[in-house]
Structure formats: C-alpha cells, structure tokens
Amino acid sequence: MSNPRFKQLRRTYGFDEVAIVPGDVTINPDQIDIGFKIDNLAFAIPIIASAMDAVTDVNFAVRMSQVGGLAVLHLEGVQTRYDNPYEVLSAIAQAPQTEITALLQKIYAQPIKENLIGERIRAIKKGGTICAVSALPANTKNFAPLAAEAGADIFVVQSTVTTARHVSKSYRGLIFPELCQSVKIPIIVGNCVSYNTCLEIMRTGVSGILVGVGPGAACTTREVLGVGVPQITATIDCAAARDEYLRESGRYVPIITDGGFRKGGDLCKALVAGADAVMLGSIFAQAKEAPGLGYHWGMSHSHPALPRGTRIKVGSTGTLEQILFGPTSVTDGSQNLVGAIRTAMGVCGVSTIQEIHQVEMIVAPTIITEGKSWQISQSA
Amino acid sequence: MSNPRFKQLRRTYGFDEVAIVPGDVTINPDQIDIGFKIDNLAFAIPIIASAMDAVTDVNFAVRMSQVGGLAVLHLEGVQTRYDNPYEVLSAIAQAPQTEITALLQKIYAQPIKENLIGERIRAIKKGGTICAVSALPANTKNFAPLAAEAGADIFVVQSTVTTARHVSKSYRGLIFPELCQSVKIPIIVGNCVSYNTCLEIMRTGVSGILVGVGPGAACTTREVLGVGVPQITATIDCAAARDEYLRESGRYVPIITDGGFRKGGDLCKALVAGADAVMLGSIFAQAKEAPGLGYHWGMSHSHPALPRGTRIKVGSTGTLEQILFGPTSVTDGSQNLVGAIRTAMGVCGVSTIQEIHQVEMIVAPTIITEGKSWQISQSA
Amino acid sequence: MSNPRFKQLRRTYGFDEVAIVPGDVTINPDQIDIGFKIDNLAFAIPIIASAMDAVTDVNFAVRMSQVGGLAVLHLEGVQTRYDNPYEVLSAIAQAPQTEITALLQKIYAQPIKENLIGERIRAIKKGGTICAVSALPANTKNFAPLAAEAGADIFVVQSTVTTARHVSKSYRGLIFPELCQSVKIPIIVGNCVSYNTCLEIMRTGVSGILVGVGPGAACTTREVLGVGVPQITATIDCAAARDEYLRESGRYVPIITDGGFRKGGDLCKALVAGADAVMLGSIFAQAKEAPGLGYHWGMSHSHPALPRGTRIKVGSTGTLEQILFGPTSVTDGSQNLVGAIRTAMGVCGVSTIQEIHQVEMIVAPTIITEGKSWQISQSA
Amino acid sequence: MSNPRFKQLRRTYGFDEVAIVPGDVTINPDQIDIGFKIDNLAFAIPIIASAMDAVTDVNFAVRMSQVGGLAVLHLEGVQTRYDNPYEVLSAIAQAPQTEITALLQKIYAQPIKENLIGERIRAIKKGGTICAVSALPANTKNFAPLAAEAGADIFVVQSTVTTARHVSKSYRGLIFPELCQSVKIPIIVGNCVSYNTCLEIMRTGVSGILVGVGPGAACTTREVLGVGVPQITATIDCAAARDEYLRESGRYVPIITDGGFRKGGDLCKALVAGADAVMLGSIFAQAKEAPGLGYHWGMSHSHPALPRGTRIKVGSTGTLEQILFGPTSVTDGSQNLVGAIRTAMGVCGVSTIQEIHQVEMIVAPTIITEGKSWQISQSA
Questions:
Q1: Touching check for B317 and chain A: CB below 8 Å?
Q2: Are A365 and D367 an interchain contact pair (Cβ–Cβ within 8 Å)?
Q3: pLDDT score recorded for residue D169
Q4: Is the pTM of this model over 0.80?
Q5: Which residues of B touch C314 (CB under 8 A)?
Q6: CA gap D134, D39 in Å, rounded
Q7: Contacts with C224 from chain B: Cβ below 8 Å
Q8: Measuring CA to CA, which residue among C69, C281, C28, C51 is closest to residue C156?
Q9: pLDDT tens figures, C240-268
Q10: Structural domains present in chain B
Q11: What is the ipTM metric for this complex?
C-alpha cells in the first residue's frame, strides 16, 4: 500500500488529540519546582505573556515579572506609536464591528516613535523587574541596541515563520550570530516548528526559541496559506532539537510553546511534549489588568493584502492573579493555570519541568457526542 | 517517518470508538452467569454504585446489595457530616444555578462527625446486606478501623489518581500493605489507569482496583490538567496487569471500571475490555430512589482553587429495578443494564464474565452524520 | 508500543469512511450486467427489500419481483397476524407519538394465524413471481415446511445475530443442515458479520447469507449492547469467507449486505466490498407503494425488556420505480439506485457484480466542515 | 491483524486533513516565480477558471488571460446554445428555488449552434489573449477541429471520469492519440485521480491532465455513486505519474488539480501535493465579473436520471482582481489567492512551482471544537 514513489505524510497532533498518562508515583506539591531559566535569568513559573497590544503594556509586564513569570512588550504596537496609547486602546474597544478593520489599519499606520522605546523599557525596569521586548526581524537591527541600552533584559525577534537563513535579492537579512554578538542580552527567536529549523537557529547562539506556526486548524495562517503544524508535534520536534543541541554544545536553550492554548490542560500537555515554558495571548487578554479591555486582535500586518485577524471579544473574566493562581471563577479551565501545572506534575510523579518532559503522552482524540454534560458530571 | 528521537504517542480508545464482535456460537440466557467476586464476597451482578452523595445513601446501598450488586457509601459526604442529610440534599436540589457553587462549598466545609460513620454502617448492615464504604487516602488511616469495627465488609480508598507510592516532604503517605494488614476486610483502591501502577498496587495486597482517570474528553481532569486515559484502553491495560499478577501470585484481583458510562453498550464494552465489574454514577443518579433527587454533582474538593464539577440535572427516569432489569421506559440504553449484559454475552457466545474478556473488540468510530434517525430505524 | 499482552483492536470501516476509486478503463452501460443468483434463481437487479411490515406486503413483493429484484415477506408480522392488516398499518401511521410503543406491543402480541401464511404466499405467487418469506429461528421448524408447501421459492431465517451453533440448556436449537435437507427450497440465513461465522454457516448447506449486525454507530444493537460491526468491514470479511467456501466446495453462496444504507453511493460501496446483493429497509419504506404509509418501525421484540426501535416518519418520497430506476425527485441519492450502480460500474470499468468485487476502495473519511454547500456546488 | 485474504483499504487525504510544514529557509517574494507552462504556452499564475457557465464567458476569459492565468469556455453551455446568453443567465439567477431544476433542464435541452463556437473563440482572441475551450468526449471529435480553426489555443476534453480506454458495444470511443495528432493545439484531458490512469493518458500524447473525481465527501459523485478520491491523495498519485512519465519520455505534462477548493490554503496544499496549477469554480463564481450573477450551478446532465447539482447562491464578494491579488474584503481566505501562494512559498523557502512539490506536508486533521473563535484570535 505504502509506495515510496508517492509523497509520504506524517501524522501530527494538536492539544485536543492527546492526553497525559498519570505516573506510577504521586508527588506532593511541596516537592514540585516549576521554574525555568533563560540564560542566567530564572523564572518561578513557566508562563510568558505574548507581545500583543491587547495583552502586554508596562503595567502588565511589571505584574507578570513580580509573580515570577514574564511578559513581552511589542516595540511595534501602540505603546511605541502613541504617547498616550490608552486613548487608542479605548477606541479599539469601542469601535463598531463594521469599522474595526479600517480603524486597526489606521492605528498601525502611525510611525513608531523611537524615543518611546526607551521610555517604556525604563518604566518596566522601574518596577524592579525583568523586562522583555520584541520586534519583527526588519526592525531588529535598529531596535535591539536601543532596547539593550535602555535596560531591557531580553530581546525577542518574532515573525510568523523564522529561519536561520533568509534569501532575498533586495536586502540583506538579519544575521542571528551577528545580532547575538552585538547585543549583549539574551535573544529569543521565533516562531518555528521543525527539528531542523530549531536546531539551526539554536546553533546561531540564541537563548530561547518560540515554537508555533499555524497551531490550530482555524488559524489564519493555516486557513489562508495552508501552513502550520499542530502544537504537540511542533513541540515534540523542537524539544528533540533542543536535546540534540544540548548533546552537541552542552548548552541548554529553552523552547517556549506559543499559541493555541485555551485551558490549563493545554499548558500541561505542552510541557509534557517538551516545552520549557508556554506563551499565552488570548487567556491573558481576558485578565482585568489587560490593556485590551476585554478584546483581542491581531496586530501584525506585514502582508497588507492578506486577511487580518479580526477583533474578538474575549471578556474580562478574572484578575491576573486568578488566571495564574486561582481561585477560579470559571469552569472552562482558563484560570488557576499554575495550580493546574502543579497538580498535573503531582499526579504524574515529577518534580521539575525537565522531568515532566519524560511523562507518557497518548493519542486520545476528542469525540463530539451528545450527552456531553453527562460525561462532565460523571467524572466530577 | 517514525523517529526514535521524538516522543512516541500510543493511540488509545474510549467507549464511543469501539464495538464488540458477535461470536461464532450463540448462547441461551439460561447458560449465562454474570457474577463476580471480591475476595470471598460473591455478587450476582457486576455493577457497583459510586460513592457519591447523589447516588448512594443507606437505603440505596441496601437495595443494591439485595438485588445482587453493591453500592459504596462515601464517608466524607453529607451522610457523615449531617445528622439529617436529607435537608441538605433537598437544599442542593432546590438551589438556583447561580448559588450552587457557594452552597456546595459551604455544605462540604462542615466537619465530619465520626459517630455518624458507625451509625450509617450499622443501618446498612441492618438490611442484612454487604456494606462498602469509602474515604480519601488522607482520612483512611482514621476511618478504615472505625468502619471495620462498625461492621463494614469492604473499604474503598479512592482519589482521582492513586499510586502505590506517594512522595511528600511534609507527611508520611498511606502505606497499602500496612493498611491491608491492619484492617481485616477487603480493601479496594483507585483510581488508576496504567499497567505498571495497577500491578504495583495489586502487589500491596489489595482486593480490588478501580480503573479510570479522566475517562472522557469532557472530563474536568482532562480539561483542566490534561490528564486522562480513555476507558477502553485503561481497562485493557489494567486487565493485563491483573492477568500478570494472577500468573505471579495465583491471586485474582478484580478490576472495576469506574466512570464515563452512559448506556448499556458501554458496560458491555468495559467487560469485553477486561473489567470484572463496572462502577456507575450518573446512571444511578437518575434512579427514583437516588438521594440526589434528580441532580448529580461532584463532591470532591481537595484542590479548592481548581474548578469544581457543577451540579447537573439528570432527572429521575426510572426505578433502580428498571435501570438494572427493565422493562425500559427510555430509548437511550440507560435502563435494563443487566439485560443488556446478558444479551451481549449471549450473542458473543460466552457464559461467564471471565469468558467475555476473550471476546473480540474492534475500532469502529462514531461518525456524526446527518440522517441519524434513519440509521436508527434501519437497524431496529 | 504494540504489546501482545494487551488486547488488540482491529480498525473497521463503515459506509461513510470509504470511497470507490474509478478504474483505468470506462465501460458503456450497454456492456454492464448487474444480475445475481440464489441457487438457480436469477435476479436482474441486486436489490432486495427487507422483511419488515413497513416495507413488504403481497403487492410490494409482486412489484419487486416483476422489476427483477426480490422482497421478503415476514411471516411474523401483521400480514400473518391479521386478516385485514391494512387497518392495523393505518392505526400505526395515525397513532400519536406518545402511544406508539404501547400500540406496537399490543399489535405484535396477537397470535400468528397459520392459515394466513399459505394465503399470503399464494397471493404473491399468483403474480407469477418469485416469493421469499422469513421467520425467526424459533418459528422456522414450523413455518418453513408450510411455506414451501404453499409455493414459496426462498425461506429466510433471520435474527439479530445468527450462528451455526446455539447453546441452550432448555431447548434444542435450529440445526441448519437438517433444515436444508428437509425443506427443498433455498434457505438464506442471517445476520452475521465475521469470517468464521459466515464460513461455518455456509458449510451447513444454506444458499445465501445476510450480512449486518449493528451496522451504524446509532443502531439500537450498538447503543444498547455495544455489539456491531461497520458494514464495509463486515462485508469484506464475509466476502472472504464466501471466496474461501467457493475454493473448498466449488459452490458459490451469495452474500447480501443488510442494513445501514442511506443512498446510492452506499449500495455501490457494499458491492465493491464484496456483496452480491443488498437488502434495504428504510429506503423502500419511503416508496409510495410501501405498506408503512410513510412510517418505518422495528417489529422484532424477542427481548421485551430491551428498548425497541421507535416509529420513524420517513415520508413517501417517490414510487418504487423512481427509487430503483429514476428519474429522481430528490437530491439525497436515495432514488435511481439501479442507475447509480450501473454508472459506478461504468466508471470503474467493470461489467459484472463479481468484477466489481475487485475494484479498489479507499479510506476517505467524511469530515464535517462549515461551507458544506460550497463543496456541493464545486463538485456539481 | 492485517490479513491478505481480506480486501485492503488505503488511507487517503483531503484538503482539510493536511497542512504544510514551513521550510528551513525563508525566501523573499522578489525571488519567487509562480509561473507554469502547457506545452509552449507560458502562464504567469498557476490558476485556471473552470469551464462552467457561472464562471467563464468571453469577458472573463479575456480578463483571466490578461492577468496571467487562464479560463476555459465550455462549448456545451449557454454561450454556444444562445445568441444572447445573458438573458438566460439572468433567468437562472432570478428563478425561484422550486423552479430551478426544471428551468435548468429546459435551458440545457436547447441545441448547440455550431456557428457560435467560432464566434465566441474569435471574441476571446480579439482580446489578444490565450483562448481555451472545452467539450465532453462525445462532442470532441466535432468541436475540436472547429475550435482549432477558429483560433483556440487549447482544447480541454472533460468528463466526470476519463480514461485512456472506453469500452462500448454501441459506438467507438474517443481515441486520444488520434485526437492529438489531428488537432494541432495542446489537448488537456480530465478528470482522473489515479497513478495508472494518469500515466496511461499521458502516454497518449496529451499536454495536460485535470485531476479530481468526487473530491469532497459531500460531492454528488461521492454521495450518489460512492466514487471519489480526496484531492490531496489524487494529486500526490497523479504527480507521481507525471514524474514517472517525465523519466520515461523526457516530456513534462502538467497536472491541474480541479475541484474542492474553498480558500487560499487549499490552493497551496494542492501545489505542495504536486499540482502544477489549480482549476477553480465556486471561488470565481463569486467574482463581480462572473456571468453567474452570484449563483453557481452544475450544468452537466449526461445521466438525466441521476440527481443534478442544484443552484447555489455564492454571492458576489469581490472583483476578479481582489480574488487573485487582493486586497481582501473577506476573512475566509477566498481572496488574494496569488498572495497566499507567494507567501506560502516564501515561508517554505521555495522559488518555483516545481520546488514547492518537494515541501513537506503533514496529516493534521481539522477537529471541530467549541471556542473556535479563540483559536482564531490566538493565532492572529
């Protein structure tokens, strides 16, 4: 049946298709450490807030760092285009649905004010916290030195798909080894999804990798381009690259699964698949402290003729504290994420993030059946 | 394609994905014995009611035992917290949906009255029947001797995930071999889902194992923690452990599949997968005799910051007699469960529970199509 | 991953999961013969109407035979319990939904009048046609000789699951070799779904096998007992038994796939899977000539405590002529079934039913997506 | 488990079940060439409009050719049956749903006026563009010479299933080698879906192959006949035949995937699967310039007793320019198709259509979950 002359297709898996197998030992929470490191920077919890205008502003970045996590401020969003970004954020939240696309296009057409880059970074650092900022590859050569100089601790170079090599007739691409040498703070690069690309980028000297391209079947990238890899498989493959790079270099470069998370179980699955940390957008956009005021939207527009992510109403369902540590006010698993990770590690019998990478995972597809509420009550 | 450097994922199966193949011989009901044993205690039917407040009270336990089955009374529910639990049960049934979470938290915050443990057990024994009670691991050391002294025949130690070993800095966990030696009644332990864990627990000397962690895709455990194994695979794996333990010890320890059942066909599938008996919650909560008064809810709250199972209206669809033996008043297969098991065994040509473990099972996924009612009429 | 100590599950397939691959040659309809034989009785079209009260009465049997097919009259339905069955059929069609179960129980509790058996058979034979009748195994010893004497050409012994061997303490089961020897007309037996059972029954000397137990996921047998095999796999397995029996005996015993059909494509798939003919219930219940008057219901009630198939409104969508030969008045593929078979054979490049068994079939699951109507328009 | 005596079924894949893996290199759009050739005719974009009355008329054909693509005019549609086809097209758009089937039957019963064949072709050529026309096999012998004489550049012979050999008692089929020799313009033939058929047809000397039979689960061909192959597998198989034919003959015959496309991602997937170009119907029927006036319908009726594709309202969502090149006015990925292809090639690191054939593709099924809008926002 299988004929080598035909193109072969590998089966891949997303969050909804897998489950975690409990361990042969259980461990008490007092034995569990969920911290991770980026170079020498240590974080108490393996959760990072996305570089999106609806999620991270100065205040949110300070709060995330204070509780042991991290939030990334996008240097190409409203925070660096507007002296008072909150007027603009309020306008986005109040615009009628029919006008939102035009409004977003207008808002992000404003030029970036380079002086605001330093200002925002200094404001975050004033909180006594770790400051991470991000830019697209095209702006990185300019912005990374500015950011480092202003005191940023981590610089994230992020585009939909990033590789170690970019071919162009018209300009010379960003060279990661040069960047890592010239800017003396940890560089995180993303997004990528495959073993080879991840390994190649690690070899350029970066300090972290963001994993995730078109993670869900309903992603814009997947719908419009057909491009994407489900997050469990992407994480498994990049984790294998990380382990290979550790063998060949002795250096441990964490991978951060980015995108597609909807609930605590998804975070635990990403960690079992091999992630060192996870990056969340929508879930944090629901925080009462989030600058999106209950809305979330796609801000990238590097291909102006392609459809944009539209504005989504996500609501403000709880405080950042509740989302991370509970008590939960919702039943959809989108709150008390840290509690979920610790409990999952307890029933899996592992006490560190690196141990959770060894836990067994199975293919256990979601089947939509009638009587779903029954199943819920049954398992309670 | 398959590369050993990447994490491998085993495919697993739930009730809705499998079906039973009829046998090469058919057997008349007069030849069929569906009984099973826990140590020397014999039961005529392989069906056990869950230790949940909406299902089992003294009366329900007496009735189940009289018809040849078993019901487990939870020693940490309303029956041991309240002298008159029926006031509380009535309050749960009448509370508006918006107040139910707070009400349940308040109700289960009341302390357990140890004198009620003996009182409930003696009331069940007065019916001349077999009495089974349960507790979480933390209370087992205290409650198990009290229960044995009061006349309980079986003690069930049950938590979401149980292993033979628990690691903690702060306290010494429950040691099953010590428990089995000190309490001279059969100990049933659960829940577990894997070959190794099941085998390890059997080796501690227990008399039965409950199988099932996050059985359905919509389970709270699966949603929030990502942890769970579909029930067919969990049962197959634990049945293999039981058979291995029988080979090495000569002792047959029954496994009881617990959770995720919605209809008669699911029970038959669990038995074919290797279960000796099944434990049902929701289906019995629908009995006219059930103390839940047509409602069902999750009562465990060992992790107060994680979301709780909410209260579900299941209705009171028939008597316990109808649910077990028919005649059925519904068309969803949730009644006449014993008739379903006997008929399935007849068409599979097997006459005992241990023979049904040998019947062929296939992967036959449920596909949701339009025109479903047609299929029903076609096959009638 | 795959461990022999664990129960293994074979993947099986139903109509909605497969598709037929067109051939390397196309054939004009003038080259195609879709006839099949049961012993020496030849039929121009490979389609048989079920032995159900909503489908087959004397008139329907005559009409089906005249057009080259066959219909089976059930000797335990209303036709042999009532001198004037049409009063009863009309009552079923007019009963409100809430009273239908009680009404059906009452109607089928009436005794069978043995004199009506001969009367109905003679009425069918008066049409100059081939007459087939059926009974459950329990009545076969009595009814088969009566039917043969009255002129029936074929006797069908049919129950949900039939094997060559039945074990009972209380009575001696039906012995097929004895039956085949004592009754000198072709005996068709069903239903079965597996290679071994089919081969064993063929070795008893029968002239045809009905294939199908719990074919669809929503079947009562599958829901209530968990028992069933999807029709494509059941047909493939029984076709392999037929071919093996032909090799060992030189005798070709046709297999007839029974149940689960919803449209023309399903018939073609059954034939490609290996069926020599198909047996349809629901689709014929939609004929203007059908005695069910636009309704369809399950009539078997051998297990009175198990849920019954309920009455379904199927409507009267076209004449028997339209259902078989078109022109079609509907767009769901439930009419012009013969045209569909001939066209499918044309594009597969095969000219006989036995050649269509060699056509390639693929696994091509139905995926439910939004924008379904688009797909329809695209392929038109 | 797998037994050679049973029929084996190969797993196949459609658009919604696969995804494209990004490459290890990214390429700038200025490096990308998406052109393809049919014999010596070069096209700047690999997109062809279907030979359907709702899509292609003279004006649409001229416009498509001007922008670098191609549109095929059907010589058996309203354009050659009516001097003024726009009256008829308007009647189709305005007919109530209940009368549409009868109206379409009446419209397509009108005879074809052979003089209109030349007239339409000359009108297209007057635009200074490449002209392609099509006919069913039965009319090809008559129409192909007429079309070539009138100046057509490409002739497409198209039916639901086409093979190199057709068997008939009553007439002599179309012989492709004879056709290719007698008509001195490139001949494109379709539709086919398998390696063998595709290879056989290529050996007859044709210049292109249309790939696609019953591509979607909801296709009429698949529903009514059970016949069809999902488009990804069909394209992979036919691409293997093209590559084999290139090895044996040195001649490169492009394959064109036809049918089932709903959005940009589907086009990219077809190209990765091995297509040289894609043929679109529904998507172009949505163009403001399309003659269908916002409707789309199936026009073939060679089997008058089989159900017809019905008329679908697709709406007029944008100009042809927008559909091909953006900017997009919709969010469903049905516009800016060229931009999607170029971007996908960029992130896959390939610069020609033949290089995209080497890109990795994975099985990544669409799972329908609640909270879909979340996934969209997450990936934006």
A1: no
A2: yes
A3: 81
A4: yes
A5: 374, 377
A6: 17
A7: 263-265, 333, 340
A8: C51
A9: 999 999 999 999 999 999 999 999 999 99
A10: 15-298+308-379 (3.20.20.70)
A11: 0.92
